[in-house]
Write a structure and sequence with these properties.
Blueprint: E1 2-12, E2 15-25, E3 30-34, H1 41-48, E4 56-61, H2 67-70, E5 71-74, H3 86-96, H4 103-113, H5 128-142, E6 146-150, H6 158-173, E7 177-181, H7 185-191, E8 194-199, E9 202-207, H8 212-222
Parallel strand pairs: 3-7, 3-8, 5-6, 6-7
Antiparallel strand pairs: 1-2, 1-4, 8-9
The structure holds adenosine-5'-triphosphate.
Length: 223
């Protein structure tokens, strides 16, 4: 469980983006982070993943575990070693994480992830959607307890979106936390157990108990 309280962040003296953010994340749940452009969603995710420092507030992790050891952040602009294949990128990452996977095991993993058709091509030649699929595969390879995804579905085709829905739900239900930012209300409605609405530097946390049109109405009235 992760409890965030009174979290504040400014980039410049007069530009406070997070003004005392408060929310709780529990294992087995998917959270969708919604908010207008520039609301601070990426800022919040970067803070949770330890990439960015915050000014004040507390982030408490159950059992006093270190958050940055539990979290994996998938950026909206994933970066890889472009002149290696996706497969060699995955192999490099599994070695860094000491997963001790053989090439055959990694091939099987790529098949399970549905990325075998392009995984041996150089990343420099990948489309946006292929890069995002590879970034999601990295997340499922290293299996973080807390998976943060910054607009992960924007460049995926409908079949890959449906597959990713299934993967994220089953991943969360195995005792993990999934937090993803999205601008798409149907995605939030379909996936989220709870909605985190970021507005004016504060979070409103609500259960996803709405129909899709009610959620749209709620979000459009709140943000
Ligand atoms: N490194 C930085 N230095 C200064 N200002 C920044 C920096 N990064 C982000 N900001 C500002 O902080 C605000 C929040 O940005 P952030 O990227 O967190 O928003 P967001 O909710 O993810 O937006 P979007 O939905 O458009 O992706 C914006 O006003 C942005 O210009």
């Amino acid at each position: 469980m992760i409890q965030v309280a009174d979290l504040k962040k400014s980039y410049r003296a007069k530009m406070e983006i997070l003004k005392g953010v408060q929310f709780t994340l529990e294992p087995n749940n998917i959270y969708c982070l919604l908010g207008r452009n520039g609301a601070g969603k990426t800022t919040l995710m970067k803070i949770l993943s330890g990439i960015l420092a915050y000014d004040s507030g507390t982030i408490i992790v159950k059992d006093n575990k270190k958050l940055n050891e539990l979290v994996h952040y998938v950026s909206e602009k994933p970066n890889f070693l472009d002149f290696l294949s996706g497969f060699d990128n995955l192999d490099f990452i599994q070695k860094i994480y000491h997963l001790n996977m053989s090439k055959d095991e990694l091939e099987r993993f790529c098949e399970e992830q549905g990325i075998q058709s392009f995984i041996h091509e150089l990343v420099i030649n990948y489309s946006h959607g292929m890069k995002h699929q590879l970034a999601l595969a990295v997340a499922f390879l290293i299996k973080p307890k807390v998976l943060l995804l910054d607009e992960p579905l924007v460049s995926l085709d409908p079949i890959n979106i449906a597959e990713t829905y299934k993967k994220l739900v089953s991943y969360a239900r195995r005792g993990n936390i999934v937090l993803l930012s999205t601008h798409m209300i149907p995605i939030a409605h379909k996936l989220a157990d709870e909605i985190l609405l970021l507005k004016n530097g504060k979070i409103h946390q609500v259960a996803n108990q709405y129909s899709e049109s009610e959620l749209e109405h709620y979000v459009l009235n709140q943000i």
